[in-house]
C-alpha cells in the first residue's frame, strides 16, 4: 500500500521484484513501463 499511495517513492529491488512477480512481468519491463508513464506525465 505504501508504494501505491506514494508514501514510498523509491521502492527497494526486493519490492520491485515482488510487484513484477505479482504482475507476471520482468523487473526490466516494469521499470520501462514506469519510466514511460512518468515521462508522459501521467503520474
Number of domains: 1
Helix-strand makeup class? mainly alpha
Total of helices: 3
Q: How much beta, percentage-wise?
A: under 5%
The major pleated sheet works out as: none
Helix content: 55-70%
The global form is globular
Rounded to the nearest angstrom, the radius of gyration is: 10 Å
Task: Give the H and E element order.
Answer: HHH
Q: Quick one: how many beta strands?
A: 0
Question: Gap between N and C termini, in Å?
Answer: 16 Å
Average pLDDT works out at 82
Parts with pLDDT < 50 across at least 5 consecutive residues = none
What do these coordinates show?
- By secondary structure, this protein is mostly helical.
- It has one domain.
- It contains 3 helices and no strands.
- The two termini are 16 Å apart.
- The model has no long low-confidence stretch (mean pLDDT 82).
